[in-house]
Amino acid sequence: MKRYNPSEIEPKWQQRWDETKLYAARDDDPRDKFYYLVEFPYPSGDGLHVGHVRSYTALDIMARYKRMQGYNVLYPIGYDEFGLPTENYAIKHKIAPQAATARNVATFERQLRALGLGFDWDRQVHTSDPKYYRWTQWIFLQLYKRGLAYQAELPINWCPFEKTGLANEEVVNGVHERCGTPVEKKLLKQWVLRITRYADRLAEDLKTVDYLDRISSQQINWIGRSEGAEIEFTVGGEHETKDSLKFTPELTRLIQAGTKTSTIRLEPKQLVEGDYAKLITRISKDEVQAFAVAKITRVETAKLKDVPLEQEGHEPYASQDEKLKDFQKFYGTTVTDETEFTTYHFEVVAPIVTVYTTRPDTLAGATFLVLAPEHAAVRTITTADQRAEVEAYLKKTQSESEVARQETDRPKTGVWTGAIAKNPITGRDMPIWVADYVLASYGTGAIMAVPAHDERDFAFAKAMNQQFLEAEGPEYLASRPAPYITIAPVIEPIAGTPHGDDHEKEAIVAVVHNPKTNETLLLDWGPRHSNWGGMLFIGGGVEPGEDLVKAAEREIAEETGYTRVKFVRQTEVPVNNYYYSNVKHRHDKARMYGLLFELVDETQVATNMDEGEKNKFTVTWVPDDEVFSTVNDGGHEIIYRMLMREEAFPGEGVLIHSGQFDGLVGIEAKRAITKWLFDQGIGRGATKYKLRDWIFSRQHYWGEPIPIVHCAVCGAVPVPEDRLPVELPAVKSYEPTDTGESPLAAIADWVNITCPQCDGPAKRETDTMPNWAGSSWYWLRYTDPHNDMVFADSAKLAYWTPVDLYNGGMEHTTLHLLYSRFWHKFLYDEGLVPTPEPYARRRSHGMILGPDNVKMSKSRGNVINPDKVVDEYGADTLRLYEMFMGPFDEQTAWSDERLNGVSRFLYRVWTLAQDLLAAPGATTAAPSGDQGAFEAEIDRAVHKTLKKVHHDIEGMQFNTAVSAFMELINTLTKAETKARLLLPESAGLRQRSLRTLVLMLAPFAPHVAEELWHDLGESDSVHVAGWPQYDPELIKDDIVTIVVQVNGKVRANILATPETTEAELTELARADANVVKYLEGATIVKTIVVPRKLVNFVVKP
RNA sequence: GCGGAUGUGGUGGAAUGGUAGACACGCUAGCCUUAGGAGCUAGUGGGGCAACCCGUGAAGGUUCGAGUCCUUUCAUCCGCACCA
């Protein structure tokens, strides 16, 4: 018999498939298309990983399956070649990165081919090929043209080990995600991509695509949209401002640095001497921020040509022409030398601090402001008295590493700046603090602190007050001067659900504690229902005018008989509790104050309850540590928390102490206060995102050069598109520098160039792009990989995109996946791609762990090398095993034993097939009735498998598809079955069963299937054969097992035909001996019959 | 803390609300032998001699019937995290 030898058949067929270009996708094809995409590999020196195999095999199966179904399938591959690991490898081995890449890519391609993966090899893309990165640079220039790529001097994340800047997404817990080095902050001029402009759409459009839940939620989480309000606080004074004066960032900085007087030129405004104006600066297209109030001291009007060349906050202009250009840049091209400008001389009278909050409803409870240490206003607002202390604090926070600052649970620290603002609702003073628990990078870098309703502010207030008291002594407590922080509750909690007709009353909740036994008194009202019953404290109404403590003492005595109790404390605010009164039988709303009592002694008198209350509850003592888990009423739980724990109440509720806003709840309160702020001209609704702009510069050699030229005269000038690509020069040394400058900067004859605009001397940008650049559009290039005219032909894009299914690792969810969606959306806005989203469906394969159930790593030595597995078992075994391991999207550990099990399966397939092939041919005898039944049974098994495999491939449940194969093989190889299959009269059955088996196995184990297919006498490839349709008629069972239950418990199995009627089934079931036993002496209340499945008798004794 | 997911034999894992544990690994016993990374047969959730009983993290609920649906809760994993 022909032996199964994978090392022989696999290379043979791989070569044949390659020669016949079996997997070439056709661009001009009337058939429907499918575009399957896997994340192209980074060709590291380690070679292919078993994780790649899992992903690539799964989509290979789907691609082959769709091809067999007659679709035009695109399943491409390429290499993501730029990046630091290759650069480091090259430096270490003293070879060019280009050479290292070429070598690694060759290894990858060999490995991919050895797995029998059906990629369209002619479409391979290489991101470090100038023919490819020419278009990466081209897309960058389009971004630049639209203002989505800009340069900014930013304190960026700097990895001191790899000596490069990093994107936010590459920093995990304060360390660089790739090398684990603690990240430092470094101030560098950077290229940045304005991904934040797409934040909303990146989140919103997730609704239009089919991504795994955990992928879209992770992206939404990362984008971190939040709705709230910006509120302006004027420091140390109030002034009626008439208008605003817009500033350049340079002037803004100057004033923030402490310059008190300045001038600004603007087109005429209605401001006169003595007016107050708000100074604003533009942050982005639709975002401005106020930063100070200024008093106009003098107003002059002059034509631009008469404006002097020297101006405050500016380098002096070299010429009249240069001055004009600059003004045009700022005020628009309608400006000429004759345009009249009004010059305002002013004096800064009060800095403005703008804060961002998601809780404008708590504004009245804001008792102080906090600025991040990096906030520009810190310098201007700090008073002389506090300067030394503030400086010291700023120094201290600067010296702390990012890692330390990111630790949670660290004690709150901060310093008062000496400055005061006013709360716009209450008019109370709000000391302004600097503290590092406020992040400069989020919102406006400043917050209004509401200690009563925010945990962090609460912790800060506690810590600062403590410090203050220790320093100043308790006598200060009485007067509580400036920096002492007041904790002012402005929200009453709500529990339960209003019914509209709720009967309102004032009430108390008495918590009685017995200090001797450490137990607390509870009333057990029976089983808890939706809004009544359960375990509660003592509750009761308050008579009009009655003292709360008196009322509580009365209720304690009435309901429990205890009279000797001592009042300890009460809650500051009541809880609005909506509940159902089981005593009065109506919906009640109680404004409940919590009161804590201690039991003095156990003296008890007779209880004195209302008629309605009698026998409704029992009194129980519960150990203190079980009280929280025992009380099961929302309102009572809140009361208990407020009494026992010192903490903020962060929930929403009814506003109090908020002036005109009292009584408003939740979202209504937020809206009302936001609107009021807007009307007052001191605030507005605002949306903020956690997502930051994408730091796009890398100070390294091995990346796409950023196609920009810096000219002394023209500034940053894009390299003209017809001069792309800007190729990487050959250099001797690839080492990164310590200065934050790319090694490219050292290559004088590359760097020095003439300006494309003015032909003057200029220098090239020496930063390169991050390795995420090339992968941000590669799926588009696959549709037209050799085009020299455009990045991809629009007709081809229209045919192939969007990608129907994109599979890749979870680790790319907030990196590559987000970046590529951003680029795609931009290209869509430019009319360059046909769809707003690149990928219709995104799935993620689970990680393959080492045999020891931990992540594979070289240092652990638990890495499985796919080459070795292919050598020992063959590619088909590896493919099939990785599909069989477990659910595709869940992580699972490698197991050699199970691999072996799959290998055994393939041997069994092979042996069975060879046996069937060698069996004697057909006889002329017509099949007997018995033979017909046998054939029906085998056909049924085959077609059931076919149906399941079809279903499982569509649903990416590859593990159960493989199980189905195994089951079928088990059925077919059963001694008796197999013997009959080999008989001459089974020749036809044998033939068609084997054909179908081979066809359905083809996507999974392409080599074995191909070999057997040819053994069956076929000359074309099995992979271009049509996918077999299952026949629903053949699947129908002639006999079904009916489960008979009595009261839901299985008591018998009976056999019946699918056509047996319900009545017949019931009769058959009742006749079964075992069922009879259970029905004896009982009455059948109900009979449930599920056709073809079950009969259930519901009986009563 | 927020968001997401997952809890089923000794193990990986199956189960459109209808016989829980398919398939595979491992294990036990036996057979066979052209000693192979074999193959074949039988068994393998727990308890019980048996009839039967119990069993899908826990507790409730809906249902004739729940691993599956609902509520509460616990545990584990992943992501984010002083994001105001």
Compose a concise summary of this entry:
It contains 33 helices and 44 strands. It is an alpha+beta fold and 1101 residues long.
Key terms for this structure?
alpha+beta; single chain; RNA-binding
Describe the structure.
- The chain has 1101 residues and is an alpha+beta fold.
- 34% of the residues lie in helices and 24% in strands.
- The protein contains 33 helices and 44 strands.
- The strands form 10 sheets. Strands 21, 22, 23, 24, 25, 26, 27, 28, 29 and 30 form a 10-stranded mixed beta sheet that branches. Strands 11, 12, 13, 14, 15, 16 and 31 form a 7-stranded mixed beta sheet that branches. The chain has a 5-stranded parallel beta sheet with strand order 2-1-37-38-10.
- Strand 27 and strand 28 form a beta hairpin.
- Helix 3 (84-93) crosses helix 4, helix 23 packs across helix 24 (875-884) and helix 29 runs antiparallel to helix 30 (1006-1015).
- It is flat and about 115 Å long.
- 40% of the residues are buried.
- The mean pLDDT is 88.
- The chain binds one RNA strand of 84 nucleotides through helix 7, strand 16, strand 20, helix 13 and strand 40.
Mean pLDDT across every amino acid position? 88
Percent of sequence in beta strands: 15-25%
Alpha-carbon Rg, integer? 38 Å
The computed structural class is alpha+beta
Question: Total strand count, please?
Answer: 44
Helix content: 25-40%
The low-confidence parts are: none
What's the story with the biggest beta sheet?
10 strands, mixed
Shape: flat
In whole angstroms, the N-to-C terminal distance is 66 Å
Number of helices: 33
